[in-house]
Write a structure and sequence with these properties.
346 residues, 14 helices, globular
Amino acid sequence: MRDIKYIIAYLVPVSTLSGLAWQGAWSWLTVVLVFGILPVVELFTPASTENVPQIAEESRSKRMFFDCLLYANAPLLFSIVAWYLWTLSGQILSTAEVLGLTLSVGVVVGVCGINVAHELGHRANKTEQLLAQIMLLPSLYQHFFVEHNRGHHKHVATDEDPASARLGENVFGFWLRSVSKGWQSAWALERERLAKYDLPEASWSNAMLRYSLFQTLWLAGIFFLFGWKGLLGAGAIAMVGFLLLETVNYIEHYGLRRQILPNGRPEPVSPRHSWNSDHELGRIFLYELTRHSDHHYKSTRKYQILRHLDESPQLPFGYPTSILLALMPPIWFRLMDKRVSQHATN
C-alpha cells in the first residue's frame, strides 16, 4: 500500500488540467502547488533515509505498477499541451491567465515530459527509449537523450560537462552555457558514433538530424492547427520546461568536482559527485530523481529502488525549494558554497 504514494505525482497534471478548465486565478494552480505548497509542506515533513531491503530490490524493480505510472504521463502530457494550445489560440484570455497557464503547462512539460523521459531513457528496452524521445518533443529537447546518456553521465562533475555547474556560477549564466554547450555536445557525440560505424553524418542514421526534423514538423503542425499564438505558446512552454530541467541540473551537481588522477583522467563517478535529497514529497513528485547520487552511481537502477547513500552530499532543502533558492544567486551562494567546501574536505 505504501507504493500508492507515487500517485500523488499526478497532482501536477491534474492541477494543470484544472487550471485549463477553470482559468482565472486557477490558471496558476500548478505553479502555486509546485513552488508554493510543496516547499512549505516539505519544511514541516521529515526526510526519509529508508531504503528498499536489498533482498526485495529485484522483485520490486520488475513490478509493472511502477512502469505504468510512468507510461500514463505520455497521454497526459500531450493532452495537456493540445488543450493549452487550443485554449491559447481560440479563447480570449487575460495576460495573467496566459502567463499562469504557460508556466503551469511548462512545468508539466518539464516534470511529466523531460523528467519521465529521463527515467525511461535509461532503460534497456527500445520501446521505452522510443517513448522517452517522443516525450521530449514538447520541450524541443530531444537532443537530451543523446547528451545526457552519453555525455553527462560520462563527464559529470568535470569541466567537460555542460550540465555540471561550477562553484560560484549563477544559474542564469549556467542556463546559457548548459543549453548551448549541451546541444553542441549532442552533435559531437553523434558525429563520433557515426564515424565509429563509418556512416555519413548527413543521413537518417544521425539522431540529431532526425530530432531537428521531428521538432520542425512538430512546430509546423502546431502553426498549421493553432496559428501564431499556438506557435508562440509552444515555444514558451518548451522554454519553461527545459529551463526547469537545467535548473535541476544546476542544483544536482553545483560545485562538485571529481579529482584528476595522475594519468590525467578524472576519478570514477561516485555518490559523492551529486547532491542528494531525501525529502519525501520531492522524491514522489519527481519519481525519485532527487536520490540523484545513486542514479549516477548506477544509472540502470529503476527509480523505485534508488537508495539513500551515506557518503552522498545532502541538499538542505528539497528540490522545489532548492530551485527557488537557485533563482536568487546571493542566497544560493551563501547557503551552498560552504557546504561544497565542507564536502570537499571530508
